[in-house]
Amino acid sequence: MTQALTGILPVAPTPFHGDGSLDEGGIRRVLDCMIDQGVDAICILANYSEQFLLSDDERATVMRISLEHVAGRVPVIVTISHFATAIAVARAKAAEAMGAAMVMMMPPYHGVGLVPAEAGIVEHFRAVSDAISIPIMVQDAPLSGVSLPVPLLARMAREIENVSYFKIETPFAADKLAALIEASGRDIIGPFDGEEAVTLLADLDAGATGTMTSGLLPEKIRPIVIDYRAGRVDQALDRWRLCLPLINHENRQCGLRACKTVFAAGGVIGSDHVRHPLKPLSERTKARLLHLAGELDLIALRWGK
GO CC terms for this protein (predicted)? Predict the structure, then answer.
């Protein structure tokens, strides 16, 4: 990857058959649909990919199929998060060997009571960086329960060679992005937000150069980033207003299930199954989701028909 990634780098859902088994053909269709959505890159094996519900063998299968099938059409980011440093390193090396353009990782955590000290976090990321030559995106998310204050993130950007992208999806993400850029801007290639772009305009105001959303509506969100970065801020705001009802419904009511539900409704995948203990959307929530998605005429909603 010779150019900095900007724009929209959505997370690919992991499709399952109705019985819960991995849908390998569905993985390929998901990737093709996302490329048709005009994404700038695709992230696999993230939390919105249900990575925490995959076996090690399934994880390896998803990575192999994804990297082989995308075949360089867009960059692929592989999530490698794990509490054990040795396993995170092994995952990073395997991802790079298979053609990943970047890896994304959360800090090591295993519940709120098992979090390493700051030195351990830095050593964890440094070990991964020393093992590969591709960029690392640090995922700073409330899910981990790990505090990553701006001075620590800035130190990692400054001292760890491949740590150059940051996905900030904490409360008040815009303030944290602005502080991080001010503290270590020259060492940061890609400041990104997440959270389905629910705070995108504020985060762009703060200096974000892109967003990592789900695969639900990249073709609607990417133009917001493009317009904003080209100085067409009013146009970007108008586009964001149009998307906000669906973004809010996904963020607050659906979570990772929204993308799978719309992809199933559009024939991209055969089932919107989520693995237990997750539960499917209620019919009420699903109906509102499909109504809002239909109003925006999403590519995913008609891709497989």
Answer: cytosol
Give the active site residue among 167, 176, 220, 260. 167
Domains of the chain listed by start with CATH number: 7-230 (3.20.20.70)
Do residues 39 and 301 make contact, with C-beta atoms less than 8 angstroms apart? no
Phi (first) and psi of residue 145, to 5 degrees: 75, 5
Any bridge partners for residue 166, and if so which? 138, 191
Binding residues: 212
Per-residue confidence in pLDDT tens, the chain, 305 aa: 668 999 999 999 999 999 999 999 999 999 999 999 999 999 999 999 999 999 999 999 999 999 999 999 999 999 999 999 999 999 999 999 999 999 999 999 887 778 888 999 999 999 999 999 999 999 999 888 888 999 999 999 999 999 999 999 999 999 999 999 999 878 999 999 999 999 999 999 999 999 999 999 999 999 999 999 999 999 999 999 999 999 999 999 999 999 999 999 999 999 999 999 999 999 999 999 999 999 999 999 999 98
pTM: 0.97
